[in-house]
Structures are given as C-alpha cells and as structure tokens.
Design a protein that fits this description.
This is Peptidase A1 domain-containing protein. Pfam families: TAXi_C, TAXi_N. The chain has 8 helices and 28 strands. Helix content is 17%, strand content 33%. The longest helix is centred in the N-terminal third of the chain and has 24 residues. The N and C termini lie far apart (49 Å). A hairpin with a 4-residue loop joins strand 3 and strand 4. The protein is α+β, with helices and mostly antiparallel strands.
Length: 454
C-alpha cells in the first residue's frame, strides 16, 4: 500500500512527459462553444436577441461579484467547512501543506453561481465519457460532477468513476494533494478538496484523483492525456453548476490543465474568440503548444500575483479616437475569458463616457444597466470611435464591436461597467484578438486577428 502513495503521481509525470515529443512541435486546438451556440448546454432558442443581451449582463454581474469575493477572501483562511454545512461523514483532520503553518491562504476558483460564456468538450475515463465543461482562466482546478452527487447538474449522466478502469483516487500524502490551495481533508485516506469563498457562497467537495482525459481537436483527431489530476465532485450546494458538469481550470497554479501539461505544450496556450454576431453559427478556438504561438503580437509581462488563478496586466491609459483621457492611476486589469463586459474604475469610466459623448453625435437614451446608450434610428453614419487601451508597453485597439453592444434594433450601449476594486478586460473586448499566455516567461501576447479564420 505504501507504493500507492507515490506510484500514480510518478506514472502521471512520466506519461505527461512523453507527450512532449508528440505535441510540443505540433500543438493542438479544441473548440470553444459560446453560451448562445446551439451546441451549448445553455442554449435557449426561444430567447430574443434583447433577452440574450440581458442574460449576458446578468452573467457579468455574477462573475464580477465572484471576482470581488475572490479578492476579498484572498488573504483569509477558514479553518473547516462553513458552519452551515458539516464535514462529510468519515472526515479526519484537515490536510495541510508539509512544513507550513496551520493556516494557509484561500484562493478559490472563480466559477461563481452562474452559467458561463464558453464551454468545451472533454472526454474522460476508460471507456470515455463526454463532459461539457467550462474553460476558465480564473480557476486552477479541473473538476467534474461525479456519481453519486445528488445536487450536481444532470442534464446528461454524471461521470461514474466506478466504471472507469483508468480512474485512481489520490492519497492525502501525495504531492498533488499538498498542492491544493484551498481547504483539503482526508476522507478514508483519500485527498478531499473543498472549493468555496466562505460561508454562504457556492461550494463543491470531492475526491482528488487521476484519470485519462481525451480531447477532440479541431482537425478531428484525438489527443489522449493519461494521468491528469482532477477533482471528482460528489457534494455541492446546487448553485455552482447550473448548466455545466465541470470546470477546466486554465490558471497558473500547478494543478491547472496548462501547468500539468507543462513542457508538452511548451507552457503555452491561447484563444481567439469570434465576434458576438457570429457566436450562434461559429465556434472559437482554444490552442495549446505550437498552435498557441501568436504571430505579429505585442507581448508584455503579466502582474506576478503568485501565479495562481488569474492573469492580469496594468492599465496605464485610455485614448478615444485621437484624444487621450489624460493621466490615470495605473490599475490591475484582469484578462478574463469568463467576463462578458469590460469594467473600469468608476472615475475612469466617467471620463471615458464624457469623451464618448463629445465624440458620438447620436441621441442618448437611458438603459438602466449600462452607462451610455445611443439611439441609432435617426442616422446611418454612427461615428463610433476606436478605444485604445494602454496595457504596459502594449496598445490594444478596441473596435466598436469590442466596446459596444446592440441592445435592441435601434439602441447600442457601451459594454462596460464600473468596478472600483480592479479592472476587467471582458470577452467582448477580446473578440478578434489572438491572445496568448506563456506561463514559463509569465507573459501575455495580443494580436488583432480574424478569429473566423483561426
């Protein structure tokens, strides 16, 4: 039995290392399915375009609240399960990292209690079971709902580890268990994770395990990845998985998909999101390895936040057309594929809105949710300017479709909201950019692109 504590992690490292020859020089890409695509588990054909926009705004509000909760709890530690939920039966004392104090820092996933904007297909187990999961640059752990799980999302059958010959639970003294950032417990000698922001916030609890994952590439081939560490969720309060059976963490933590693949993908991934107007008929791409190389890019260093669960840069300036807003206090801007809208510090957003009012000669209307809206029914030459973001040494030009949303047939609104804690570069602003992440150098690359041809 002693060998079981180290054998499977060792085999995982060997198996993933062997992938370097196969994929580092070729790479692979998978589809990203938008929330409103017919293949999305959240697709609702009865929604009007206006209803879809309102749903996107609601998803952003929930995501932004999730991010704020993340940062408010970043330096807090909750010793044990929330008082509203007791530890699972058979639990022992919490597992803590070797040679660490009793407390540790909570760095919870950012999945929030809401649907997400993009999905991807993963296949796990032997034989394989297809799962539609949420790829998330704000999360570090891969996890799926597993049988038994009474409150997990069950549009499709859950993954049943008992039927997979390649599934293995990880013990509490395994290295992956020590790498779990939030609370972990020993339950019948199995490493058990607990993901939460704290009392009253959605949570998931399950077994840390290893399994074979298979990805279908955009070329139709399959990439088989044995021994990936993931979470097999058995307990949830039912609010963390509305329309998804799992999360694929793409953050910088050692247990994220990107970090586990490591040198086999040269520590690189990227994505290219098609414009909103095409998300019902086209899919976007998530790329790994050599497929993630961004040609003609502006490359800058990311903020070193401990390289855990999010990617961020500094926002140093904004220009509307040819007119700069003037000096602004540099703020952290999270590059987040899970947020629909872009958010700016309240005073900066007010200055941007004032500049746009002076530039766009269309009648203004009130929306109630977004800060600036225009009625386009009276003119055809709208005159929306480019908005240029200064991100460190890089300049990112947001075209009108990156910065404005058509709310209904005649009303278009600025796709931004205030947030005084930090800024967010949302996925509307990221559309038609090839955005690459290099975890080895901790740099991010931006290049304008036609993502329909990715």
């Amino acid at each position: 039995m002693a060998s079981s504590t180290t054998l499977f992690p060792f085999l995982s490292i060997v198996a993933l290392a062997l992938l370097a020859t196969a994929y580092a020089h070729h790479g692979f890409s998978v589809e990203l399915i938008h929330h409103d695509h017919p293949r999305s588990p959240s697709y609702n054909p009865t929604l009007s375009p206006s209803d879809r926009i309102q749903a996107e705004i609601q998803r952003f509000n929930a995501r932004a609240a999730s991010l704020r909760a993340y940062f408010s709890h970043f330096h807090e530690y909750h010793d044990g399960y929330p008082s509203t939920y007791p530890p699972p039966s058979g639990s022992q004392s919490p597992c803590h990292p070797p040679n660490s104090p009793h407390g540790t820092t909570i760095q919870a996933d950012l999945f929030a209690s809401t649907d997400n904007n993009y999905y991807m297909s993963i296949r796990l187990g032997t034989p394989v079971k297809e799962i539609i999961a949420v790829p998330d640059t704000g999360s570090y752990l891969i996890w799926v709902g597993c049988e038994p799980c009474p409150k997990c999302y069950k549009k499709d059958p859950l993954f049943n580890p008992a039927t997979s010959s390649s599934y293995t639970n990880l013990p509490c003294d395994s290295k992956p268990c020590s790498q779990l950032t939030p609370q972990r417990f020993c339950v019948n000698s199995t490493c058990t994770y607990y993901e939460s922001y704290g009392q009253g916030i959605p949570y998931v609890i399950g077994d840390l395990a290893q399994e074979t994952f298979t990805f279908k590439t955009t070329s139709g081939s399959f990439v088989r990845l044995p021994g990936l560490v993931f979470g097999c969720t058995h307990i949830t309060n039912g609010t963390s998985q509305r329309n998804t059976a799992g999360i694929v963490g793409l953050g910088g933590h050692p247990l994220s998909l990107v970090s586990q693949l490591g040198s086999s993908i040269e520590h690189r991934f990227s994505y290219c999101l098609v414009p909103s107007s095409l998300t019902k008929v086209m899919t976007s791409h998530l790329n790994f390895g050599s497929d993630a190389v961004v040609s003609g890019a502006q490359t800058i260093s990311m903020i070193d936040n401990g390289r855990q669960s999010f990617y961020a840069v500094t926002l140093d300036g904004i220009t509307v057309g040819n007119n700069s807003l003037g000096p602004i206090n540099s703020t952290m801007m999270i590059v987040d594929c899970g947020s629909t809208l872009t958010s700016l510090h309240g005073t900066v957003l007010e200055r941007l809105v004032d500049a746009l009012k002076k530039t766009i000669s269309l009648p203004q209307v009130e929306d109630g949710q977004l800060p600036l809206c225009f009625n386009e029914s009276t003119r055809s030459d709208y005159g929306y300017p480019d908005i240029i973001l200064q991100l460190g040494t890089a300049t990112i030009t947001l075209k009108p479709y990156n910065a404005f949303l058509m709310i209904n047939n005649h009303v278009r609104c600025l796709a931004m909201k205030p947030n005084d804690n930090f800024s967010i570069l949302g996925n509307i602003a990221q559309q038609n950019f090839h955005i690459g992440f290099d975890l080895a150098s901790w740099k991010i690359s931006f290049a304008a692109a036609d993502c329909t041809k990715n």
